């Protein structure tokens, strides 16, 4: 595991602090890591008050979950310029009060990496966490390690990282200097500092130049299963499509994909990514490259579009994010929903996905959205997504994307195909931009002014209100028919979502929210690892054959036996459990078999062509 400690002499630090009293000076050393702990040292900026609070974030943008990053810090000490200890008090999970703060010179504390923590409650999703693997890899998410003084978020930061000579630090940061294996990063405030993760390891990097921007792809694959070159080759066409979608150029100068490919199942049990304004951090399995390619295309398409929102379009709650007492905006439909919608739309519109494939994506989102509370106004869910409506949050990737779909078609119908969500996002970016936040209560009115008055009614009914989205009506505007809902009974595997344990290529039950009656009869639980299926060992390599054979040949009354490895507090390494039930048919009433209508009108074709180019 990895750890950081500073290697500069006390005399140097003292003289430097006198010279640079108006900035934070953090020091870490990646060569000194013990017991998964890292020492952080801060030469403090000048403090004007007798007492000051030093804080680590309670939550950060993009996570939508309270993590309390201060719980990973320990042995907190504050000293004056002579080395004398100042009185400190930990006042809550994330904050330390320092007395005689005008005398403050230096703070030191230790942090543990979140990936290997023994604190299993509220386990941090890996892309939002930190990883210290000495001599191998360091994932440095800033909010896990470095904090701020109350009221001093807009002060300049300098981070000094001493690293092994064969390591390279990958990030989106551009103000970097290097001397004697120490990298010094300069960042103008905490908002930008927290927004820029860094990954250190022996370099495997590829640079793409797209739309006037430099795209850095950095990969750590412990078993060399994949490489930055392979991933670059497989996402370049998506980036070019996004360039076209955004008008021919990208609104950034540099972007970094930081990709950690894991050989083991992480503590969160999930894989995925966390977006930042100019980068994204990935925690993905070391799967066969033929599976990895499309997964990376889909995930990266979503994350990259966050360069539009919230980078250039965001509410005051995000623009002036409160890391200690976070408040949520009501516009998750915009930040995550429109982003998810655009990630699919860009692929079909610019040729990397067929119309048939895209309609299956829409169909699946319609089906999955039905497992959530459709009468809950989306703005209400957004504001309460940290607590009251936490279980509804992931609907942003389903109904949130469908809101984008309906809004796009409605705009194109009103404009004769000349104006849609693409143009709306461009106009909003011009109106606001990185430095200007919108007011939550005014956004719908502003969009209506930029587009059409009728759009205000759309938001009132379907986003602020509880009416279900008029999907059938709107898709038909674009010449897409629902067909007849499928009510045929069929053999089911259980209606579960399956992931992969990359350490052994076993299938893993990752979501039971949509589990059907047959799945309930079998008794699946989330994170069950499938070992045997009807007596046959099963893994990613033979899953298609084993499950396909079952679905084609099983008959009602047959007995299905499944062996799983089930982990619990009593059995953290897992206990083999045998599941069985008699096979019976289940009905899936939510598939709509979306397809282009026959004899579409000229108006329908015009809307469809401007919408998806087909």
Low-confidence stretches: 1-20
**CATH-defined architecture of the largest domain:** Sandwich
Q: C-alpha Rg, in Å?
A: 26 Å
As for the CATH topology of the largest domain, it is Immunoglobulin-like
The CATH C-level class name of the largest domain:
Mainly Beta
Counted up, domains total: 4
Sheet-strand content, in percent, reads 15-25%
Query: Spatial order of the strands in the main sheet?
Result: 4-7-2-1-11-14-13
Largest sheet: 7 strands, mixed
* Strand elements, count: 30
Helix content: 25-40%
The mean pLDDT is 90
Q: What shape does the CA trace take?
A: globular
What's the helix count?
16
**Could you say which structural class the secondary elements and strand pairing correspond to?**
alpha+beta
Distance between the termini: 51 Å
Produce a short descriptive summary.
This protein has 614 residues and is an alpha+beta fold.
Layout of strands and helices, then pairs:
Layout: H1 10-19, E1 23-29, E2 37-43, E3 52-55, E4 73-79, E5 88-92, E6 95-98, E7 106-112, E8 131-133, E9 137-140, E10 148-149, E11 156-162, E12 168-170, E13 176-179, E14 182-187, H2 190-194, E15 198-201, E16 205-210, E17 213-220, H3 228-245, E18 254-262, E19 272-275, E20 279-285, H4 289-304, H5 316-319, H6 332-349, H7 355-369, H8 378-383, H9 399-415, H10 421-431, H11 443-450, H12 454-462, H13 471-477, E21 480-481, E22 489-490, E23 497-501, E24 506-511, H14 517-522, E25 529-533, E26 536-537, H15 543-553, E27 559-566, E28 575-582, E29 586-587, E30 595-596, H16 602-612
Parallel strand pairs: 1-11, 17-18, 18-20
Antiparallel strand pairs: 1-2, 2-7, 3-6, 3-10, 4-7, 5-6, 8-9, 9-15, 11-14, 12-15, 13-14, 16-17, 19-20, 21-30, 22-29, 23-24, 25-26, 25-27, 27-28
Helix pairs in contact: 3-4, 4-6, 6-7, 6-9, 9-13, 9-16, 11-12
